[in-house]
Write a structure and sequence with these properties.
Layout: H1 6-29, H2 52-74, E1 78-86, E2 89-97, E3 100-109, H3 123-140, E4 148-157, E5 165-173
Parallel strand pairs: 3-4
Antiparallel strand pairs: 1-2, 2-3, 4-5
């Protein structure tokens, strides 16, 4: 089969385009449109309402953070920030005592059946906390001051109807965030 020249291919393309345009024009004149419309998008599925268990977890977590703040204040800490949000997550509490800024992760559980709360702070979570802390330090220009920084975990076991058991692990992990120092 003989290969057609570019001119022949071009002419054929023009003929096809002209045919399509004239067909569309005729259809418009007749009141119908052949234009393709974008397919209708399905509406985004709404997230299912939170079930009772999830709401209880959120409430327990919020109450645990409130209790941790009260505990820290009794220990002489000054609360700088709470629930500071970043793209990668949230810093629960940033507190200061003397010349030390503590970035504190709070974990609250109603029982310790599935392990102690601090065990939920995994190395990837630690790395995110360290990254967010670095962003905070840069944003607030704290590196210029003579301050020390550390990463703490507050572990709370709070059974229903009882008082919370609070454990504060100071300097629980370092900026390398490879291994927690928390040892029971």
């Amino acid at each position: 089969m003989k290969k057609r020249s570019w001119w022949h291919r071009f002419r054929e393309t023009l003929r096809t385009a002209w045919r399509d345009i004239s067909r569309e024009w005729d259809q418009r004149q007749a009141g119908e449109s052949s234009r393709r419309t974008a397919p209708k998008r399905k509406p985004k599925a709404k997230s299912p309402p939170l079930d009772e268990e999830m709401r209880e977890k959120d409430i327990l977590g919020r109450n645990g953070e409130d209790e941790a703040v009260r505990f820290l204040k009794t220990q002489g800490y000054r609360i700088l920030e709470r629930n500071l949000k970043f793209k990668m997550g949230e810093l629960d509490i940033i507190a200061m005592k003397d010349d030390c800024v503590a970035f504190i992760e709070v974990k609250t559980r109603s029982t310790d059946e599935s392990g102690l709360p601090f065990e939920a702070v995994t190395p990837p979570k630690m790395r995110r906390i360290v990254t967010m802390a670095e962003l905070y330090i840069r944003r607030k220009k704290l590196a210029d001051r003579e301050l020390s920084f550390r990463f703490d975990i507050i572990s709370i076991v709070w059974p229903k109807g009882e008082l919370p058991q609070i454990e504060h692990y100071e300097n629980a992990f370092d900026a390398n965030a490879k291994y927690p120092r928390v040892v029971k």
